[in-house]
């Protein structure tokens, strides 16, 4: 990153605000700061909030049908119908060749699992359902873990719980004028108490006007690193926590080249919310 080229520009003819002063202070110290167009306007936030609410409703619809014996294709069908009923567009469908409307990742599949008729959920499976949709060109994004049948092994149950705690701890670390690295540091510290691996090849991201925007939100790292967090930014936190190694690989049997598997093929869990940074902390827009 070339810090000599300023990313933050004050508006011509406008007085310098307290926000401008805060951002320029850190930029002058050599920190990575957002560009002004990453700060969402009130109108944009209102649109993203609507998309987030619809996205949450879609995951609620999935929660209502998750049970042993259904296929992951059944989950995709529910998501497609929900989008049609709510004038929403499933953002994953045909994104860089992804063939379905939602990601369904079972057990050792870390993320980007492709729904299939032959993938039948069994009691004790853990499955992540990751939905991104747009409403009027604004985007919401979230994922949830489900324990199929409501009961699994103690080891998988702990993994699902700790992954959710990692999301919550990361959100607590996300404060205005702190840094993305503070989020990753908090998540990594908690996960490693349990000797879990925090996936490093994938990350959270800005969202709202597109499915993927700046900044990258790493789920590991050091405090005080990464981009400055500024009120008006919208981003996801979505830690992928593996029972074993943090390393991953692409499933060679996936003809689309999307499904990510844990490196030692042990179970993996992920939770994701979309957050708005405010003057006091984060507000959940989709969960």
Automatic annotation (TrEMBL):
The gene is map. Its cofactor is Co(2+); Zn(2+); Mn(2+); Fe(2+). HAMAP family: MetAP_1. It comes from the Bacteria. A divalent metal cation 1 binds at residues 130, 141, 272. This is Methionine aminopeptidase. Substrate binds at residues 112, 212. Binds 2 divalent metal cations per subunit. Has a high-affinity and a low affinity metal-binding site. The true nature of the physiological cofactor is under debate. The enzyme is active with cobalt, zinc, manganese or divalent iron ions. Most likely, methionine aminopeptidases function as mononuclear Fe(2+)-metalloproteases under physiological conditions, and the catalytically relevant metal-binding site has been assigned to the histidine-containing high-affinity site. It is an enzyme of class 3 (hydrolase). CDD domains: MetAP1 (cd01086). Monomer. Its EC number is 3.4.11.18. Belongs to the peptidase M24A family. Methionine aminopeptidase type 1 subfamily. Keywords: Aminopeptidase, Hydrolase, Metal-binding, Protease. GO terms for molecular function: initiator methionyl aminopeptidase activity; metal ion binding; metalloaminopeptidase activity. PANTHER family: METHIONINE AMINOPEPTIDASE (PTHR43330), METHIONINE AMINOPEPTIDASE 1D, MITOCHONDRIAL (PTHR43330:SF8). It catalyses: Release of N-terminal amino acids, preferentially methionine, from peptides and arylamides. Removes the N-terminal methionine from nascent proteins. The N-terminal methionine is often cleaved when the second residue in the primary sequence is small and uncharged (Met-Ala-, Cys, Gly, Pro, Ser, Thr, or Val). Requires deformylation of the N(alpha)-formylated initiator methionine before it can be hydrolyzed. Residues 47-279 form the Peptidase M24 domain. GO terms for biological process: proteolysis. A divalent metal cation 2 binds at residues 141, 205, 238, 272.
